[in-house]
Amino acid sequence: MNPRILKSLSILLFSLFLLPEVYAQLGKITIDLEKDKPQKFKTKTLKSEKTGEKKFTVPRRFVQNTVSHYNYFYNANNKLNQVIERARIANKDDYTKLLPFYGYSLDNTAAQKTDLDSVIYKATAGILLHDLRSNWVDNFYLLIGEAYYLRKDYDSASMTFQFINYNLFPHKKKDDDQLVVGTNENAENKAISVSSKEDRNIIAKTFTRPPSRNDAFIWQIRTLIDMDQTGEAAGLITTLQNDPAFPARLRPALEEMSAYWFFKQQMYDSTLAHLENSLPNVADLQDKARREFLIAQLFEMTNKQDEAKDFYDKAMHHTTDPLMDIYANLNKAKMLKSNDPAEIDKSIATLLRMSKKDKFQPYRDIIFFSAAQLALIKPDTAATVFLFKKSTFYNQENVPIKNLAFLNLAEISYKQKKYKDAYAFYDSLQLTDTTLGDIAKIQQRKNALAVIVGNINIIEREDSLQSIAAMTPGDRDAFIKKLSKKLRKEQGIKEGDSLYSNPAANYFDSKHASSDIFGNVTSKNGEWYFYNASLKSQGYTEFKRKWGKRQNVDNWRRASASGNAVANTANAFANPDDSTGNNNQLGQNADPLMAATVNPTAIPVQTDFSIAGLLANVPLTKDKLDESNKKVSKSLFQLGKDYQNLLEDYSAAIDAYENSLKRFPDSLYAGELYLNLSYCYRKLGDIAKADYYKNLLINKFDKSKFTQLALHPEAMEPSKKDPAATKRYEDIYNLFIEGDFEKAVALKKQADSTYGANYWSPQLLYIESVYYIRNRDDSTAINILKQIITQYPTSPLKAKAVTMIDVLKRRSSIESYLTKLNVVREKEDSQIVVYNDPAIIKRMQQDTSRMLAVHPNNTIITPGKVYLDSSKRAPAIAKNATFMIDPLSTQYVMMVLNKVDPVYSTEAKNAFTRYNSQNFYAQKIEVTKDTLDKDRTLLIFTEFLTADAAIKYMDNLKKAAPIQISWLPPAKYSFYIISGSNLDLLKQNKNLQNYIDLLSKKFPGKF
């Protein structure tokens, strides 16, 4: 047939779902397409339209079945399977996490829309171009439904499966079109049955597929689950499980749907019970291995180690994926029955044996990482560090695993207070990896350690240089000469190199040669660099001198310098003959000249390794020694402050402060040193020491500001405030919220003069700024909002403060624009009280009468809703002497604000309007402001079709409220649902508690 004709026929399929004239029985389907056919096809008659004009003889049946099968169904079915197979190949499972239920993504299948459209096209042509009495019509419809599902067109898929369910239902009598699906009139026993019996003869089993109606039930369940219609899916699953006519061939598929339903609900215990029974329904051996791996994971999550171990073993033997084989082996080794160290050692030994096998060599990073995790359980910190380092050594491309290894190493070093090591590991992290968790926290700790390590490096370097200066001249000269030779050798500088020769001679030589592209001196005859052995050797030496011997490791420059520092320190200071009596307590093993290279930003890196260059840094004069001590004193005190404030390591801070006090007793920093020591000792619970340094501070620095802080220690710790001050500020806060602005401002000034700025909160600052905005004192408001930005950078109110400042700066232009538009603004500064109104009472009575007329016996049949049991009733109506709640009637969401000034209630309305526009833009939810009485304001959110819909939106609103209206205390507001008639009645009688009681009775635990 002409391809254009076939293309036009594809649109006719949709009429099959819409026309009420469509009727069908098993083996007989009639379609009326005349009124919907395109004009140019009006005179053409399709094979499907000729159905019934001739007898369906055996030859005709054979021809129609054969052509339908091999010309259409076979090709369409193959293409559908190819779509799924490509999606499976494209899927990359992460075996470190719980696997998705299916081994392919619907996003991937939906991306193959062209092929799926082709399936729909071929199946449609197969229906319309052949006699509808053929045995393949129902199979074509199933292919269409599956294609719609894989396109993620869930509504169309569900309609197709429902069409198969209804139109292919087996009737006993030809004219019995009124038989209801789900009754027991067609069953010999009295059990309810909705399935089609599949008692087929040998010929039918050989040449045809089973009827697709029962398969459509399975696909309908899967579609409903993905549409989040879990209730409908559960009802259909239960019905089929108890259906005696449901075929045995589909029982594993039904078990799979049951497992999928529980999996989506994260009910993993129940998932396991059905998932094991679904194994016969897998596509192939690899799909079986994947499902066994998932079962093992679920057993592991439910602490059933033996069962998990068994299924990991099964997955290992069935899989063709080497990565799954690796993780099955790893996870099997980690299935510990207890935390017994002997058992952990046994599992670690198993993993280490795996690392030596050739087939596992590409995955040694994962193996050592898993072994390190086991050692961490033991715990064996030394083994953990060793194994994590082995993992990073073998890891070349697996960034998430490498990052986790470095993160674990960093945290272990941090807990051990090896802050230089911790910083090096944190610095090795790639912070673009979102799997690390809280990136901001990691970056914050890394930055803090960078500051601390910088100060440690300065102290160690200066102390080491002072140690060299304290040597006798002979010992010093011998030590510097030996050190220079060692460093030059490590940098690849030979003894005969003239890198430190006379500059004048170098300049003279340059006159007789020219520079090549590398900045080196070329020969006079212009010989190319790579052909000149002398120049290549010189370039190699220069590179080694400048960069050292590069290793194939992360952060090679810092790692090389750090390694050199350790080696140099061992050779220079561990030798008793070279002992210098170094008195540095923070860096006893510091390298004299190279320690700073661990943190290149702290101090300059030593590059001149000649004897003169090394001696230039040694403080041999009094001025240089004083300058060196000044650096140490400043860095030592700052180090203590960094330990105290950045890391809250009070023991390390005390060590630094005590060391500073011992070495530099005159450097007391106006008493701040005593104050910090007192604070740190108090944090550690040593009250005697804390009081000792507090008394020293008061006696020696009685006029210092630090003495005032010592007298008010709560001001040093804003997070733990004085109860009396906290109560005082909470009262001020409530005065602002309730609108008593003048009194609140006056009391706040008094409190601030007593307690300082430490007791300010972002919420208090925000509502204070709103007060000044109301009074059009924009400059004061902007200054207050800037305090929120600078003092509370992590507060949700920071973004609001930034936006508010921007609006205030453009306030005049915005108001001018609105004035020109002649917009009538809502009055914000007054509270409207609604009193008894006869019109309201009349409207309420009319709504109540209408409600009772619609639901006289609490029974409702929703149009378009199909019930398997025709006796289904609507949810019962709840009522008391005053109110009545119908869950199926339209409802509003109502927010009640108690004693909140109109300024802040209006601000709350604006906040939720913005929230709806960003998160529920498609629903166009409106927020209106109303009042209940002089103390209670109402925010009414657009009505919803049912109580369930309103409650679902209300739950989202509750979660968002602490951020959207963070300036309002939670005690000041509450959320409910309410119908229009109940709202009118509530505004008339004011009896909110009566309504809440009924609401709580109808929806327990929701209000």
Describe what this molecule looks like in 3D.
Helix content is 58%, strand content 4%. The chain is mainly alpha-helical. It has six domains: 1-168, no CATH class; 287-335, no CATH class; 340-414; 438-495 and 553-667, no CATH class; 723-820, Serine Threonine Protein Phosphatase 5, Tetratricopeptide repeat (Alpha Horseshoe), CATH 1.25.40; 838-1002, no CATH class. The strands form three sheets. The chain has a four-stranded antiparallel sheet with strand order 6-7-5-8. A two-stranded antiparallel sheet has the order 1-2. The protein has a two-stranded antiparallel ribbon with strand order 3-4.
**Mean pLDDT metric:** 75
What share of residues is helical? 55-70%
Number of individual domains: 6
- Which regions contain 5 or more consecutive residues with pLDDT less than 50? 1-31, 171-183, 498-515, 559-602, 823-837, 846-873
Number of helices: 42
What is the β-strand count? 8
If you compute it from the alpha carbons, what radius of gyration comes out, rounded to the nearest whole angstrom? 40 Å
Give the DSSP E fraction (strand runs of 2 or more residues).
under 5%
Largest sheet: 4 strands, antiparallel
From the spread of the alpha carbons, the general shape counts as extended
- Distance N to C terminus: 66 Å
Strand order of the largest sheet: 6-7-5-8
Question: Given the helix and strand composition, which structural class is it?
Answer: mainly alpha
Pfam family, one: TPR_6
Protein name: Tetratricopeptide repeat protein
